[in-house]
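INPUT
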Amino acid sequence: MTTTPETFPDDFLFGAATASYQIEGGAREGGRGPSIWDTFCATPGKVVGGDSGDVACDHFHRWEEDIDMMSELGLQAYRFSIAWPRVQPLGTGEFNAEGIAFYRAIIDRLKSKGITPMVTLYHWDLPQALDDQGGWLSRDTVDAFAVYARRMAEEFGADVDMWATLNEPWVAAFVGYGAGAHAPGHADDAEALQVAHHLNLAHARAYRAMKEVRGDLRIGLVNNCHTPRPWDPSSDADRAAADHIDALANTMFHDPFITGEYPAVLLPNTAHLTDWSFLHEGDLEEMQGQVDWFGVNYYASHVVRHNPNKGKESSKLATLADGHKAGANSPWPGDEEIEFMPPTGKITAMGWNVDPSALHAHLIKIHRETGKPIYVTENGSAWNDSIDEDGRVRDTDRVDYFHGHIGAVLKAIGEGADVRGYMAWSLMDNFEWAQGYAKRFGIVHVDYDSLERRWKDSAYWYQEVVRQRAVVPVEQADALAATPPRTF
Ligand code: NOJ
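OUTPUT
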């Protein structure tokens, strides 16, 4: 019998997360080169409302106030990403001193406020020049990434010890190259599998390069998790469907780094789509052991079943299950007979269900399968927020969501999972990729005309969670919030 502790361990890190393209703006300032997301956004029909990250939250100019806000919130850690094209505009060759200085200033200010920086090297904004030469389909991009990673370790390694190489390689590969709903917008099953493998290799090579610079860096890989449960657990076919999705979504991005193998079902299940000749001898050996921790980004759970007669609608649902907008193709190679069931229960503005039990189950699974320290590197929800007459954003659904999920983390810790931190997604509303600005995930509201920041009720509630290091009751949210709320 295990019991859930009352509070989080003393060294557990509470923070919030963002990503460069989603908040920075300043797309053509400071010597930044174009990325595949600039190109994708400029392509009609790709992003809802024709939105782009050109201005985003204007963090490029407001980073100082934003860090002050993190400090007021009491955050102990801040997870953000470096825009590769800001520090190395073409992805190879010259580095950009101005871009490096921008991140140096952010890191310095965070540290002066006692906030631990957690830096992600790749949150999907690949330099366009690399895409012009094949992007992640090319092994040259893998090697370019290791060069970039080494340089970042040289620049910042003395001040940052928590690093993530890639954010959600599943999305980069299967939504970007498989479904076509994200940049660079390819829709090809075989390409998606090749890119997924190259991303794994890129992680391994970056890991080694950075460790050569400083052996004490703690370098992890951040995966979005899917929790495919079989529709009928007593059906072999439904369980096989869930195993296939688990292999594509989860284990193909863990196993190589732990066991030096891809999950057993992966190659046979996709052999009709690709001959896997992109998997070279020695690649898996390069990957084995090359990870210090795993990041878990969790949003929603999934139920799948075997259905030999599934219609096109199901593939669309499969894409929507990730909220990344329906693409031209399914993001799940080999899913010809696998159906994603429509979500049930409470549904967020992204169309995702609310299911803290699956986060708990996933943390236990990752703990058992990898034995590595885990950080919840993203967790949060989008709702149709509105500003009340008194200026408040009473986002009770978001508070409720956080309450359930932070509770699930504490429960997993009580059962022995080595979870060391929780980063709320997101610090503030931002550019939600193919969904543009329509979906709001922030604990701080952003007015995209004036760029004013406004604390939502959830910001006050989360501030109290961090202060107490406990799962504060939802009912206290109203009293914790100030009227009018903090704005700047
Ligand atoms: C995970 C991604 O890392 C992040 O960029 C995105 O905004 C959230 N999911 C919500 O979709």
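end of record. The two ends are 48 Å apart (CA to CA).
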